[in-house]
Amino acid sequence: MNIILIGFMGVGKTEIGKLLAKKLKMTYIDTDAIIENEHGMAINDIFAKKGEESFRDMETKLLGKLANIDGHVVATGGGMILRPDNVKKLKGMGPLILLWADPDTVFERVKDSVARPLLNVEDQKAKIKEILFFRAPIYKGIADLEVDTSRLSPEDASNRIIKFVKEGK
Ligand code: S3P
């Protein structure tokens, strides 16, 4: 079994994912980090030099390679769920845990980051709202469990997820 963390930028996939892996003695992996390593380029440069579509292809290709892993907590890039084929693959790997946060919280968490090409715009808050509005039905429609991290510590969020994977509720 794996635990698949999905959700927008700034919802806590990295921090909560690492904590979960530690508590459950599983291995933490992060699809963005694997892609950066494999291609020897930062996500920003991949978007700038090759374009978003190429990055999405890299994500799809990577998922193909991860199909048989076990015992991993997988933090996925925020847009991994945009392709239905990716969602199908993810579902075959383990429960999809949606980490959610309201747009204001996301903004506070990502506003100083320069590593997120989609939010490299003048009006970050408007952009966050726009993308979230489009993606919310996708995220929420495919999730097995939704955890709102807006006012939850990583400790509490990880405990909620552990309860779900152990008890199924
Ligand atoms: C993206 C999220 C990023 C990264 C890329 C695109 C998105 O990952 O994959 O910048 O489309 O939401 P994080 O969610 O880990 O920041």
Describe this structure in words.
The chain is of the alpha/beta class. Helix content is 56%, strand content 12%. Helix 6 (103-110) crosses helix 7. The structure holds shikimate-3-phosphate. Shikimate-3-phosphate is lined by residues 9, 13, 32, 43, 77-79, 116-118.
Order of helices and strands: EHEHHHEHEHHEH
Spatial gap, N to C terminus: 16 Å
Biggest sheet record? 5 strands, parallel
Q: Whole-number radius of gyration? A: 15 Å
Tell me, briefly, the overall form: globular
The quaternary state of the protein chains shown equals single chain
Proportion of residues in helical segments: 55-70%
Describe the strand arrangement of the main beta sheet, using strand numbers: 2-3-1-4-5
Strand tally is 5
Structure described in brief:
With 169 residues, the protein is of the alpha/beta class.
Features:
single chain, 169 residues, alpha/beta, 8 helices, 5 strands, binds shikimate-3-phosphate
How do the strands and helices of this protein lay out in sequence?
Elements: E1 3-6, H1 13-24, E2 27-30, H2 31-39, H3 43-50, H4 52-66, E3 72-75, H5 84-93, E4 96-100, H6 103-110, H7 124-142, E5 145-148, H8 154-167
Parallel strand pairs: 1-3, 1-4, 2-3, 4-5
The chain binds shikimate-3-phosphate.
